[in-house]
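hey m, so remember when u said the tokens were messed up on ur end? i reran from scratch. heres the input so u can diff it against urs
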Amino acid sequence: MGKPKKKREFKEYWILILGVVIILLSFVAIGTIWSNVQRFEKLRHAEHENFTKNISKTADYFLSNKDYVDFSKTRKLLKEINFLDEIAVFIDGKQVLPSADEKITWPAQMDAKDQSSFLNRKTQKLYVQQNLNYHEENQARIKTIFSLAEYQAPKNGILQAFAVIGFLLLILAGLGIWLYTTHHKLKKTEKTKADMIYGITHDAKQDLFIINTKLSSLLGKLDENKKIVDLKKDLKISKESTDSIYRFVDNLNDQQKLEEGKTEIRIETMDITESVVSVMQAIEEHMAKRGMRYKYNKNTGPFYVEADPQVLKRIIKNLLHNAMKFSPFNTEIGIRIEKQEEMVRILISDQGPGIYKKDWEKIFQPYMQLNPNKEGMGLGLATSRKLAELMEGSLGVSNSVQGKGAEFFLTIPTA
């Protein structure tokens, strides 16, 4: 039994697992690309620093020979081919090349005496300085400025690619969550459908078995020409079973019409007590067989409401059958009618196991059964609430104590 269970769990979570794996692999790929970009940037800085060292050797040669003109030509050529933005020579802290008249702005980070470099990420300028060796006091320095703007375009392209990948990953994650929730809902629907079919077939077979047994008994007695002293009893039992099947089918039909929006409500002015008494009389004998009894308190009547008489009876019958289903043998079902502002309220209580407050709304979901071992399809309360709302009323749990029973309310607008 263990293996099939694991297989079902895998089928349920495989979409989520696949999505997580794809996202992790994407992040690993993004991290690898980004680390390579960073490494390339460091190598590029090192290359420019090495290039500055080579320029410093050339500067040593020209400056030692006081050949400023040729060095200026070299400087001009390097700027014209866009190899660098600027090159300057400082001796004892004073700019000698180019002339002091050409103002060049250097960042404060370049005031260090030792060799250093600084990248201004905002302007994408790389500043590199190198000490020159020709001067005895070692106070001569060469400073260069490189533009890295052309390298920024591919980097921006990579960042944009990352943004697109991130956006696609978000879409993928959203799609994965949607697929997972849809899959979970389908599984839940399948289970609900299976439970519903089981409930219908189980209850229908049980009632049909009783009907079949009683009819066979009657036929046997007729064939043997025996006096049928218990004919009325057998027919009543058969009638109760057919009523039960009829109620199941009726609820199923109501639910289908409600889902399709085809339910017709015929509102008229009526006394609600007549519907309550009529339903009580119809199932009184059935209750007596289960050792149950009514405690009916209608307060001051009559109570005139605007409702569909047939629909109202069906709701009351569903509530009473629900109370009977969960009530132990030899217990009492309370029925109370009271006026409440512009509504008339029917309260039906039982002495069953009670309902946890967290489940008060759950039990009104179609095909929902907190106790699958009980008879029914889980449609009675769901359809009853919808039908009550169509008559501008309401249906819910007013009170419940665990182990001591539950109380349901039904409100209908007054006439």
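this time it looks ok to me. Residues 1-10 have pLDDT under 50 and may be disordered. if urs says something different then somethings off w ur setup not the seq
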